[in-house]
Amino acid sequence: MTHPLPNKAQSHWLEALEQIESDGLYKREREIITPQRVEIETQGGQHVLNFCANNYLGLADHPDLISAAKQALDDYGFGLASVRFICGTQTPHRQLEKTIADFLGQDDSILYAACFDANGGLFEPLLDDQDAIISDQLNHASIIDGIRLCKAERHRYANADMNALEDCLKATQKKRTRLIATDGVFSMDGTIAPLDEIAALAERYDALVMVDDCHATGFLGPHGKGSGEHHGVMDKIDIVTSTLGKAMGGGMGGFTAASSTVVDLLRQRSRPYLFSNSLAPALVAAAQAAFDLIQASGERRAKLQHNTEFFRQAMTDAGFDIKPGTHPIVPVMLYDAPLAQAMAQELLTEGIYVIGFFYPVVPKGEARIRTQISAAHTKAHLEQAVDAFTKVGKRLGVV
Ligand SMILES: *Cc1c(COP(=O)(O)O)cnc(C)c1O
């Protein structure tokens, strides 16, 4: 610290920082000097293979998205300097909202600056103290925050535990509306929510289903329509929220897709929509190009699936403990926090960029390295990663 501390608050904040540091939880950001892609270069000049981006379809540096964004700068300018309802809605905004709604089989959709905002602004306009929200314990922070802003009665069930969910549904029978809220994919485990069972329970107990499909939109399911399509229950999902900041180009933006009644009410009442700037036209155009691209061809989706199967099998054959599943989030279980940290560090020096996750991001004793596969990885990239994992794993006594 170069500045003197003028008051008590400052020293309180400094203590908090020191606590974070001494708990070993201080996050340091590594600077990348290339575009986001599989082969990246970090500030120190190191060339590494990226295995920790949400760039599932490899669209983050795709020429079609970049040229769509450039064209939108020419046609629609840089920024809107307005919220949507004053003078911030351009033709591409409505076009993208319709594309998303059609893609997901919903009446309409509404864009936000991020999915964090979509979730933050979802619950409060729709539900009040006559209603109840039933939420999976492992739901994303933005769902938790969104629920906090809402007056509905709150219930939480253990991750993907259908008996616990049913108990919550039984306990809330007298409420006007019950909304089950779940991530479509749980991002630390790469597991897919059992939406078929959730939808069946919702039907039986006359509840609604909301799914946050950030780690699914664009690549999960036969046409990339997400976890609902994966489980064959797209028509049973009442509300979908998701992001444009992961598989769909990774720029930014989020959305909620639902019945026109829900979307209309959100446009009137959802605070992050009403009181925050309109999504920049370049972002909208690039996201539109991403939706057009994935609907024109399933090639990247197939490649991602193929890469994921190959990597999961090769890592298992190499003796690693992989959380089972089919999702391109592939957690390599190490259980011990310092080991996960050391292993990620050594992998980096071997040219493989991965991050260790440990408490409080995952439960105590469940430390891991979370790898994420992309359609942009080649077989050689995947083999290089497996080789590096094996080399470092042997050195650290993991395999
Ligand atoms: C990434 C993520 C978000 C936040 O999305 P942004 O568009 O980056 O704000 C919300 N929910 C889940 C489940 C996510 O994985």
Which features does this protein show?
single chain; 399 residues; alpha/beta; globular
Quick synopsis:
The chain is an alpha/beta fold. It has 16 helices and 15 strands.
What does this entry look like structurally?
By secondary structure, the chain is α/β, with parallel strands linked by helices. It is 42% helix and 16% strand. It has helices at 8-22, 63-76, 84-87, 91-104, 115-120, 123-126, 141-148, 162-171, 195-204, 227-230, 260-269, 271-274, 281-296, 299-317, 337-349, 379-395, and strands at residues 39-41, 47-50, 108-112, 132-136, 153-157, 178-183, 185-186, 191-192, 208-212, 239-243, 254-258, 329-335, 352-353, 355-357, 367-372. A seven-stranded mixed sheet has the order 3-11-10-9-6-4-5, with helices on both faces. Helix 2 runs antiparallel to helix 13 (281-296). 48% of the residues are buried. The protein binds pyridoxal-5'-phosphate. Pyridoxal-5'-phosphate binds next to helix 5.
